[in-house]
Write a structure and sequence with these properties.
The complex is a heterodimer of chains A (about 80) and B (about 280). Chain A has one domain. In chain A, helix 1 crosses helix 2. Chain A has about 80 residues and is α+β, with helices and mostly antiparallel strands. Chain A has two helices and four strands. By secondary structure, chain B is of the alpha/beta class. Chain B folds into two domains: about 220 residues, TIM Barrel, CATH 3.20.20.60; about 45 residues, no CATH class. In chain B, the strands form two sheets. Chain B has an eight-stranded parallel beta barrel with strand order 1-2-3-4-5-6-7-8, surrounded by four helices. A two-stranded antiparallel sheet of chain B has the order 9-10. In chain B, strand 7, helix 9 and strand 8 form a beta-alpha-beta unit. In chain B, helix 2 runs parallel beside helix 3, helix 9 runs parallel beside helix 10 and helix 11 crosses helix 12. The radius of gyration of chain B is 20 Å and the shape is globular. Chain B starts with a strand and ends with a helix. At the A-B interface, helix 2 of A face helix 1 and helix 2 of B.
């Protein structure tokens, strides 16, 4: 089973786990989920689309990361999963 | 012209996002010592996206990994763009600075960049100190940073609060930098809790001719800026001298002191710095 992990649980960062899967499954844990849960999902979906990925299992533990951080950690996790 | 340069680890988004509030003249995003080997890839991606997202109001410097290692080349590949101002090269030697200049020229051409990216060599080997002048005169070199921790390791000497062990490299860098019109940047003061020690260390470096100092903690910036900025008394004196030159030609006397060309030039530099740092 291929898994990639990137980021951290420090403030303003997020820890993302990417795992090969036959379906699209995104789980979001965030201290600000109520306010930014939809935006986090949107950034993940946009990044996956850019990378041409339709099925994958993503788990994000968000600690208030901005969009560019979520995008970066997701790309890193996927690259590590693929390597 | 810089006074303070703050190192920020390139894998810490919380610090990177707040870089503009620290009042440092330059931010050095560190991909080298501050980032674990296993995290280099992730830091590179994070820094790239950070720079694409934000438009900093400070000088952007990136300390890359050594260019004779794959990570240094990957750093350049990922990050050379119009969004950066300078590359800091660790363990710099004459040959590695020349190689970096060639690589930057090649990236700038291929990516059609509008700017010429500068180089700040980090001198932290005894052999590099002996090459200071040869490095200072190279194209793109815009400042030289003394790396005292690694240098004293190389020399097998102890780092001390007095700093006698770095008198020679500080002096050598200061003179070479002055001769070639670039910044002489002093090594960071590593005790982040000793503000008085930092101020004294910065004053000592300034007296030897260093023009700026690197910092490893945001709290160090105000002390460094204070030391390397013209004081209020200096500014008042410089303005008075320059005002007097409007009605006096050649050598003249002001408040019982002789004012000649070198003093007038010094006053002009003080005012130039004061204006740049928005003190006046």
């Amino acid at each position: 089973m291929k898994i990639g992990l990137a980021g951290s649980i420090e403030s303003s960062d997020c820890l993302i786990t990417a795992e090969a899967s036959n379906e699209l499954d995104i789980k979001i844990e965030s201290s600000v989920y109520e306010f930014f849960g939809k935006q986090i999902r949107k950034v993940i979906l946009e990044t996956l689309e850019e990378l041409g990925i339709k099925t994958i299992r993503i788990h994000i533990n968000d600690k208030g990361a901005l969009d560019y951080t979520i995008r970066s950690r997701l790309i890193s996790a996927i690259k590590r999963m693929e390597s | 012209m810089r006074r303070s340069l703050l190192f920020i680890p390139a894998n810490k988004p919380g610090m990177m996002q707040n870089a503009d509030i620290f009042a440092a003249d330059s931010i050095i995003f560190d991909l080298e010592d501050a980032v674990a080997f296993s995290e280099k890839d992730s830091a590179r991606i994070l820094l790239h996206n950070f720079l694409q997202t934000f438009k900093p109001n400070y000088e952007v410097i990136i300390r890359i990994n050594q260019i004779d290692h794959i990570n240094g080349l990957l750093d350049l590949e990922a990050l050379v763009s119009d969004r950066i101002d300078a590359i800091m090269l660790p363990k710099a030697r004459t040959a590695s600075v020349k190689k970096l200049a060639e690589l930057l020229a090649s990236f700038e051409k291929a990516r059609k960049l509008k700017k010429t990216i500068k180089i700040i060599p980090l001198l932290e080997l005894a052999a590099a100190i002996l090459e200071t002048e040869a490095i200072a005169c190279l194209p793109r070199v815009d400042g030289i940073l003394l790396g005292a921790e690694d240098l004293t390791n190389d020399m097998e000497t102890e780092r001390t609060i007095i700093g006698e062990e770095i008198f020679y490299p500080r002096s050598k860098i200061a003179y070479a930098a002055k001769a070639y019109g670039i910044d002489a940047i002093d090594t960071p003061f590593t005790d982040v809790n000793d503000d008085q020690g930092l101020s004294q260390d910065a004053k000592k470096a300034k007296n030897l001719g260093m023009t700026a100092k690197a910092a490893i903690h945001p709290n160090q910036i105000r002390y460094i800026n204070e030391v390397f900025s013209p004081s209020k008394d200096q500014i008042a004196w410089a303005l008075k001298v320059l005002e007097a030159t409007k009605t006096n030609l050649g050598v003249f006397s002001l408040d019982g002191k002789m004012i000649d060309k070198p003093i007038i030039e010094r006053c002009q530099k003080i005012i130039e710095k004061a204006k740049k740092y928005r003190i006046i």
